Amino acid sequence: MIGLSKKLMLIDGNSIAYRAFFALPLLNNDKGIHTNAIYGFTTMLMKLLDEEKPTHLMVAFDAGKTTFRHKTFEDYKGGRQKTPPELSEQFPFIRDLLDAHNIKYYELDQYEADDIIGTLSTQAEKDGFETVVISGDKDLTQLASEKIRVDITKKGITDLEKYTPSHIEEKYGLTPDQIIDMKGLMGDSSDNIPGVPGVGEKTAIKLLKQFGTLENVLNSIDEVSGKKLKEKLEENKQLAEMSKKLATITRTAPVTVKLDELEKQEVNYDKLTKLYKELGFNSLLDKLDGEEEEIELKDIEWEEVTDFKDGDLPSHAELYVELYDVNYHTADILGISVHADKKTYFISPENAAKSEVFKKWIEDENVTKSVYDAKESIVAFDRLGMHLKGIDFDLLIASYVIDASEAADDFASIAKRHGADAVPTDESVYGKGAKKKVPEKNELMQHTARKAATIHAIKETCISALEKNEQLELFEKLELPLAAVLAEMERTGVQVDIDRLKDMGVELKKKLEEIQSDIYRIAGEEFNINSPKQLGVILFENLKLPVLKKTKTGYSTSADILEKLKPEHEIIEHILLFRQLGKLQSTYIEGLLKVIHDDSNKIHTRYNQVLTQTGRLSSTDPNLQNIPIRLEEGRKIRQAFVPSEKEWVMFAADYSQIELRVLAHISDDEGLKEAFHKGMDVHTKTAMDVFGVAKENVTSGMRRHAKAVNFGIVYGISDYGLSQSLDITRKEAADFIKKYLDSYPKVKEYMDDIIHEAKQKGYVETLLHRRRYIPEITSRNFNLRGFAERTAMNTPIQGTAADIIKKAMIEMAERLKAENLQTRMLLQVHDELIFECPKDEIEKLEQIVPEVMESAVELSVPLKVDYSYGSTWYDAK
DNA sequence: TAGGGCACGC
DNA sequence: GACGTACGTGCCCTAG
C-alpha cells in the first residue's frame, strides 16, 4: 500500500456527544426527544468529513461503567456527575446517525474510548496511515506523533485545537509522552485522578523539563528545589505512580476491528433522510438534497412524435403526464410520455390533443396503462379532452399502499426506493422558488420520458411486494378505482355563492373593526392582536394577568389558556371573539374566494390519496374537510356552498359513530356491541357502563366525560390528552380510562393484543389489509413507545373506518351510474359524503345512499347512516 | 423563506 | 422515572 495516502479519523464518541450536549441549548423535536447532542454531533461530523476527508474512520464509545482502571483505583472517575437522562436518550440516535452514514462504531468491555483510539492509532501509524483523533479530552494529546494529530475541542464544538508534537512543545515545552507524566504529577480532577497534592500544571512542567520523566523526578527528589515540594513528592510517590498509570492510554487493548474494515463507505441517503425527518433536522435535510443530486444519470432513449399511427401504440404501455405545478387542475401541461414495448415516445400536449389515434387509445378501456398518480393523470387528460381509461397500475399509490410512512415527495424518491435507475428530482430539473423555470426542450423530454420508462422498470417489483403483503386487492379493488372516483369529484367541483361569501366578509370586517377598537381601548394602546408575541406583552406584562403556560418562544395565548383567564379581565372575551372571527375572515372568506375558478364559480379541491398514515384522505387548495360547523357563526360559511344547477339540492350523508362501531366489531366486546344493536346513544351507554348507573341517572356531565373518553379511544389520545380536553388532572383521566377498560374487558383485551402483535410483526393492519409499520413500538424511549402503542391501538380503528368509506364511495359512484342518476358526488369529509342532486332524485337517494354506505362491509354490528338535504350545505343538516 | 403559534375539522 | 403526548391544512407573524 504505497503511494496512496491513507487517512484515518478516530472520534471519541462519548466525549464529543458530551461537548455537543453542553454547548447547545436543550433543543427538542416535535416528539419530545431532545436533539441537541445529536444535532451538535451531526454538524461536527459533517464539518470534519468535509475538512479532513478521511479515507478511513471510526467512532469509539466508552463501554459500561467499570474499566480495567478501576482495578488500579476503585475511585477512578468517582464523583463524576451521572450522565443526564436528556443526554443518554440521545445516544441511540447518534448510533442511528452513524449507521446511516455507514460509519463503524466500536466499544470494548472494560476499556474506554481512549484505549480503543490509542490502540488503533498506534496500529495505523505502523501501517503508514496519517491519523486524526477528535476528542474533548486533553488526555488524548499523549497520542500525538508525527503521524498522529490530536484535535481537542476548544470553545463550543467546532472550534478545535490541533495538537501535534510541535504544538505541545510550544505550549508546554514537553513531548507528547511527557503529557502522561504531567498527569501523574498534577492529576486530573475530571477523572478523579489524584496526582501529587499541591502540584499543578506549572510545577509539573518545571519538574519534567528538569528531569524528563516522572520516574526520574521520583528518583531524584533530593535534587528538587523547594523543601515543601520535596516533602510532597516523597509522601506521594505511590500516588504519583498510580496516577501516571491511570492516565496512560493503553496501546494494546484487545480491539478486534481491523483497519481496512474502517474504510469510508457511501452514505445511505434514504436512512439519513428518514432519520433527519424524524429528528426534525430540516436545515440538514436541505443540504442532503443538494448532495444527492450528484448521483450519476444514464441518459435514456426517446423519440419525439407529433402524432401516432395505428399500430404504434400497443395494448399495454406506461404513461406519464408532466405538469409544471402540483395543482393539476390549473397547471400547464408540459408533455406526455408513453413507454410502449421497448420504445419511449414524447408528445407535446398540443399534438396529443389533436391526435385521433392517441385519443382513441387513451380512451380504450382494453388498453392497459400503468401510470404514476392516476388521479392527476385522469384530470390532466380530461383537460385535454380525453377520458383516460384502463389504468391497471399506479406507482404512486402502490408505493403508498406498500409503506405510507415513506413520504411521497416526488417521483425521484419513489423510483429510488424501489430500486430504479436514478431519476432527477423535479426540483433539480425546474429549480425552486423564484428560480423555477421550464428547462430547455431536450431536458424536458428526457425527464418526462424517463418517468414513463421508470414506471415500466419497477412495476413488477411493486406488484410482488403488494402480493407478498396480501395487499393486491386493496390496491386494485379499492385505491385504484377510488382514484378515478376522486378525480371525477374534484373535476366536478362544488359551486360557491360568491356574493354570499362577500357579504359575510363585509359584515365580518365591520365586526372585526369594532372588536379591534374595543381591544385597543381596553388595552390603552394599539398593537397587533394577531401577534402572539405582542398580545403576550399586553396581557401578561401590561395587564399583569397570571401566566398559566409558556411556549418555546414566550407566553401561551392559546384559546384554552385564554378561556381560563376570562374571569380575570374583560379584554379576554374580545380577544377570543377577534380570533374566532379573524379565522373565519382570513381562512374561510378570503381563503375560499382566492381559489374559486372564475369561469365557473366553482371550487376544485385536491384530495391527497397518498399522505395519511391511517388511510384517510386529506384535502388541499382549499381544504374542504375543515369547513366550520361547531359554532354557528362559522357554520354559516356552509351557506355559500350551493348546488351547481337550478332547482337542485345539497344532500349530505354521514356514518354515525363509525369508529366506535369498528371498535365494537374488532374487539367483539358484548357491552359495546349492545349499544349499537339496540340503537342506543353510545356516549350515554358508555356513561351508564363506566359510572354504573341507569340510563335515567346519566347526567350531562357524565355523558360529556364518557364522550371525551370515546373520543380519546378513537383518536388514540393519552391520559394527558384526555385530561386536557376535560380540564381534569392526569390521574383522574387515567382513572377514567381504566374504568372504561374495566367496563369493556374485550376492548382492553384488544388493546393489549394489538400492542403485542405490533411488537411481533412490526406493523398493524386494517380490515382491508392496509398496513402501518410502527418500529418505535420497541423503543426504549418512554415517549416514543407511548406514541407507538397508541398508534397501534388507534390505526386499525381509524384506518378501517377509512377503508369502509372509500369502498362506499366506489360503490356509490357505480350505483349512481347504474341507476342513470344525475346526482353527483362532490365531497368526502372522513365519515361523510356530500352530493348535489335534482329534487326529483332526492327520494331515490334517501333509499340508495344509506343502503350503499351501510352495506359497504359487513361487521358484527350494524353500520348506520344519517342523511339530510337542503338548498345549501348549511341546510343539509 | 422557514418555523412557530394558533385554529378549524374529524 | 423520564417528558411530552391523535392528524392534517392554512393563516399570520417573526427572524433570518
Automatic annotation (TrEMBL):
Name the UniProt record assigns to this protein: DNA polymerase I
A UniProt-annotated Pfam family: DNA_pol_A
Xref: InterPro entries: 3'-5'_exonuclease_dom, 5-3_exonucl_a-hlix_arch_N, 5-3_exonuclease, 5-3_exonuclease_C_sf, DNA-dir_DNA_pol_A_CS, DNA-dir_DNA_pol_A_palm_dom, DNA/RNA_pol_sf, DNA_polI_exonuclease
GO molecular function terms listed in the Swiss-Prot or TrEMBL record: DNA-directed DNA polymerase activity
DNA-directed DNA polymerase family A palm domain boundaries: 634-841
Gene: polA
Its EC number(s): 2.7.7.7
Top-level taxonomic group: Bacteria
Species this chain originates from: Jeotgalibacillus haloalkalitolerans
EC primary class: transferase
Lineage: Bacteria, Bacillati, Bacillota, Bacilli, Bacillales
Occurrences of domain 3'-5' exonuclease (ranges): 304-467
Subunit-structure text: Single-chain monomer with multiple functions.
Residue ranges constituting the 5'-3' exonuclease domain according to the UniProt record: 6-265
